[in-house]
Write a structure and sequence with these properties.
Blueprint: E1 9-11, E2 16-18, E3 32-33, E4 38-39, E5 53-58, E6 62-63, H1 64-78, E7 85-89, E8 93-96, E9 104-107, E10 119-121, E11 126-133, E12 138-144, E13 160-161, H2 164-169, E14 175-176, H3 179-192, H4 197-200, H5 217-289
Parallel strand pairs: 5-7, 6-8, 9-12, 13-14
Antiparallel strand pairs: 1-2, 3-4, 7-11, 8-10, 11-12
Length: about 300
């Protein structure tokens, strides 16, 4: 029998009104999921889901191959594509990726930068199928981190600000110090500590610092600044004196050269004098031997 289009109408005394019967969804075969009492997802367009579909929870460690089988089973039962299907971790779950010749797993960088296996999912983290390349058999996943771990010296994470009381106590290991808390710490230390000369001085010209009973850190630091300024002045004087010494050294070198020249001249004069003495001695002998000369006295 051929399907015939039928329109139900009722006469209202003047015209015929079209009747629209109310359809009971429970009477439509294959429309309602008896478990959820909702329309089967595969009967709805993907635009209804906005590209995201909850595929179940993860409560134990899984391989990525096992996750793929879970997604495949979900899509087989509910229709649609793997793209956008996601799991939610209900406890700490470790994901591993053993060698699998049937499918390749690629993990995109998540909010914590995890791209290498094993991956640790914390409670409420999502594992999402970005897309499935049926031709190359590659399944692309991403992790959305919904549980932020505390930061430490070895891990990135969330860190809160320390209170002023925590900064003063100095025992909290996982809290960042703000300028206000730091000021509270410095003020507390400054008001409760005195400083002896032996703890602050290393040089003899600073030996008079800190000898006053009850002297505070601020006072000592001011006096140290004054002494450092004095040291700077002395350094300048030493530099000037070094320059004068250099000039004097140059003068001494010049005088030494002059003395050497004078010594050479003196030596030459001594040689000349010795020659004259020798000639006078010869002359004296000649006079002594001469018969024509009377008493002649030669003094020299």
């Amino acid at each position: 029998m051929a399907d015939l289009p039928i329109t139900l109408k009722r006469y209202n005394g003047t015209n015929y009104d079209v009747l629209y019967p109310l359809t009971n969804t429970e009477q439509v075969e294959g429309l309602i999921d008896s478990n959820t009492q909702k329309i089967f997802e595969h009967l709805l367009p993907s635009s209804v889901f906005g590209g995201m579909r909850y595929a179940g929870s993860l409560s134990e460690n899984k391989t990525m191959e096992e996750c793929f089988f879970l997604i495949d089973g979900y899509v087989s039962s509910n229709g649609g594509q793997p793209d956008g299907c996601y799991f939610v971790a209900t406890t700490t779950v470790q994901l591993t990726d053993p060698a699998n010749e049937n499918i390749t797993t690629v993990l995109n960088s998540g909010e914590e930068g995890d791209t290498d296996f094993p991956i640790i999912l914390e409670p409420n983290d999502w594992l999402i199928v970005d897309r499935y390349d049926e031709t190359e058999h590659i399944l692309y996943w991403s992790v959305i981190n919904n549980t932020y771990q505390d930061a430490s010296t070895t891990k990135k994470g969330v860190m809160r600000f320390a209170t002023s009381a925590e900064a003063v106590a100095g025992t909290e290991q996982y809290a960042a110090v703000t300028p206000l808390a730091l000021e509270a710490r410095i003020s507390e230390y400054d008001s409760t500590h005195t400083h002896s000369a032996t703890k602050v001085r290393q040089y003899s010209d600073l030996s008079n610092i800190g000898t006053t009973s009850g002297e505070t850190l601020s006072t000592i630091l001011l006096e140290i600044d004054s002494k450092i300024a004095g040291i700077s002045t002395n350094t300048t004087n030493i530099t000037n004196n070094s320059s004068n010494i250099s000039t004097n050294t140059s003068n001494i070198s010049t005088n030494t050269s002059n003395i050497n020249t004078m010594n050479a001249t003196l030596s030459s004069h001594q040689t000349t004098i010795q020659g004259l003495e020798s000639r006078i001695e010869i002359l004296y002998q000649d006079v002594a031997n001469s018969s024509k000369v009377g008493d002649i006295i030669i003094e020299y």
